[in-house]
Amino acid sequence: MKKSYLLLHIAVLFIGFSPVFAKVISLNEGLLTWYRVSFSAIILFFVLKLYKVKTKISFREKFDIAKIGILVTLSWVFFYAGIKYSNISIGVVCYCVASFITAVLEPLIIKRQFRLSEFLLSGLTIIGIGLIFHFDTSYQLGIALGVISPVFYTLYSIYNKKLVERYDSRLINYYQMLGGTIGLGILLPVYLHFFPVKSVFPNVKDTLFLILLSLFCTVLVYVFLTEAMKKISAFTANISMNLEPVYAIIIAFLFFDESKQVNFSFYVGLFFVILSVILQTLISIKRSK
Predict the structure, then answer these.
(1) Within a 10 A sphere around the Cβ of 280, how many other Cβ atoms?
(2) How many domains does the chain have?
(3) pLDDT digits (tens, 9 = 90+) for 154-197
(4) If 78 and its partner were Cys, which of 72, 127, 147, 148 is the partner (CB 3.0–4.6 Å)?
(5) Phi, psi of 54 (to 5 degrees)
(6) Could you list the residue range(s) of the whole structural domain that residue 218 is in?
């Protein structure tokens, strides 16, 4: 159990750097996401060969895994759109609703009872994030797009948990990235028709950042998350994800000079977010025992 929580929080730390790439990569959110999943699929292909992971599963099983990858791919599209149409702080803070969405959807999908503690902890997290960041009405589009992202990610987390009990995490992530590459690739011509760009190819700088994003913030993150979720619920994973906005906002303050000030309310909000994660971790450990 301790190893699972360690992997989970290392993954969250890496994810904290993910929105930074949305800021420094010049591609729009659709192309950025497509290159991210396609590069990740290529890296994972060699990972499977290197570690000699058994890949002999039926086409139906591959399809079932790949279609879950479309959910996380769509989550990234809306996540990056939220950042592109606002800034890093707004884009990441919208993820705070993921724990609440999970508290609602997980019981409905896997047919378990609603837990009052999950709703209370979700509320605690939302209060904390609200104190950290005060929404700006000039970024309404970015906020709207950003809030859609955790809906897809929550569905991904719930359905992915069923897969980790049966398959190797690296195999899962390979076919999910492949599914995202194909699925988004089919939609891209329509997407680019409504949102045209000068070039669909990344420049040298963008290519370097895409490789780093794919390797550290995608492959390693989702292998760690998949391993962690073998013993940790989707709700616990998502509420721990609420540390991501904290990391990302700090990075935004330090390196991008975003128009937000770290004041007393920031530290109060940070306290509430960390408290919600600690309480959920303690509750999960108690339940497992």
Answers:
(1) 26
(2) 1
(3) 899 888 888 877 898 889 999 999 999 999 999 999 999 998 99
(4) 148
(5) -70, 125
(6) 2-288
